Amino acid sequence: MPQELAYLKESASQTAGPYVHIGLAPGAAGFEIYRQELGRDMTGPNAKGERIRVEGRIIDGMGAPIKDVLLEVWQANADGHYAHPEGGGEVEEGFRGWGRVISDFDTGEWGFDTVKPGATRGRNVGTQAPHLNLWIVARGINIGLNTRMYFSDEAEANAADPVLNLIEWENRRGTLIAERTERDGMPVYRFDVRLQGEDETVFFDV
Amino acid sequence: MTQPGEFYQRDRSIQPPAFTPGYKTSVARSPRYSMISLQNSVSEITGPRFGHSDIDAGDNDLLTNYAKAGESPIGERIILHGRVLDENARPVPKTLVEIWQANAGGRYRHKKDTYLAPIDPNFGGCGRTLTDENGYFYFRTVKPGAYPWRNMVNNWRPAHIHVSVFGTGFAQRLITQCYFEGDPLIPICPIVQTIPDQGAIEQLTAKLDLNATIPLDSIAYKFDIVLRGRRSTLFENRLEGN
User: Fold this and answer.
1) Residues A82-140: tens digit of each pLDDT
2) Mutation test of the interface with chain A: which of B19, B42, B56, choosing the one with the most A Cβ atoms within 10 A?
3) How many angstroms separate the CA atoms of A129 and A153, rounded?
4) Of A3, A57, A160, B108, which residue is most buried, by most CB within 10 angstroms?
5) Residue B171's Cα: distance from chain center in Å?
6) Closest CA to A73 of A52, A98, A51
7) Distance between CA atoms of B125 and B160, rounded to whole angstroms?
């Protein structure tokens, strides 16, 4: 027998279920318990950069919006730095770059306010186009889905982005690009995620 | 430029696939195209960090965090404790662990739960804590009850506590469920059985830990959580033209 490797195995994922709100957003479940719920303020008061809103729905294979979904967002600041020791540089006091949002129980719409991130360093050389990292869980989703949201007004950076360019099918790259509109003078990006179908959103095995 | 160590590739042979028809809700909620494999960049190796200003000391005590003064929830008092480790068997310190569960009767405090078992006025059903420097965490709670759910006509969930963990990088993000040793519903639960590996199911099953019980007060179960590990040696792996 060769020597044994002493690695442990990652714990298996299980669905977040329909009552994920109790643990991660108890106010939405219908009760107040904590001094503060986490993930509501993504940027803090000092964040530089353009204030934006991001909205969308997660649409299932029947074409229906998922009304019990929970998303988490992880993003860099306007300088392209993540709030982490290996994140590429300093961030503003109070900037976390992490958000947690749930869909509306009636419409499936979700949305959050943040700042537009800057380009981040690439894996080897160069940069990655500005993007948000999204993690999606819900009843019926056995293991959290990882995807990215890019910005429609960053066409040049998107065209050079090493991750978008990994996607062999060029027609699928657009599933990761949110369309910029304006509402009351504020930029609003629309990002609908489709779990199945011809225009299924690209998901990543990270 | 030195590249940061990546997380080890996720072992999909022990993780549930997206499409698991025995768990019917997964059918319309499972992507069908292959995921794009992504070598980790700064976006995946970093992740949110939490501190003691985010949470309160009593948040991990479900026996008291929603109970009226001097009252307690109904049910079997338990301690759920363990460590968050990575695949290298190293502790993951100062990471956020959040849990949620049904009460002892199998009812959730949630406006969408209509099961006929009663709400417990002294039980909220959620808790959170940060691991210590050794990756250790503990909660006090009541053992949740089994409950029926709509899948097949007659499916029952084994007693379980939902667990959410962060780690140090967003690629480690994990939500899972903790089951309890000896529960006869485990092998016939369609959600448990989405996991294709028996060892992985056993790894989600907390074991009675008699040494950690508090005599005449609370029984204890041990539940360790393993997150993905990271490469510690930094070899360059430069892709052509990338």
Assistant:
1) 999 999 999 999 999 999 999 999 999 999 999 999 999 998 778 999 999 999 999 99
2) B42
3) 11
4) B108
5) 16
6) A98
7) 12
Task: Give me the CATH number covering residue A60.
Answer: 2.60.130.10
Class of domain B18-26+39-240: mainly beta
Q: Report yes or no: B61 at the A interface, CB cutoff 8 Å.
A: no
Q: Say if A13 falls within a structural domain.
A: no
Q: In terms of Cα–Cα distance, which of B44, B53, B58 is closest to B170?
A: B44
Structural domain includes residue A144: yes
B10 touches chain A (CB under 8 A): yes
* Residues of B that are catalytic: 108, 147, 157, 160, 162
Residue A30 structural domain: 20-194
Is the ipTM value over 0.95, yes or no? yes
Nearest-CA distance A185 → chain B (Å): 30
Is B37 close to A204, i.e. CB distance below 8 A? yes
> Which of B14, B15, B242 faces A124 most closely, judged by CB atoms?
B242
B62/A contact by beta carbon, under 8 A: no
* pTM for the full predicted model: 0.96
Kindly indicate the confidence band of residue B239, based on its pLDDT and cuts at 50, 70 and 90: very low
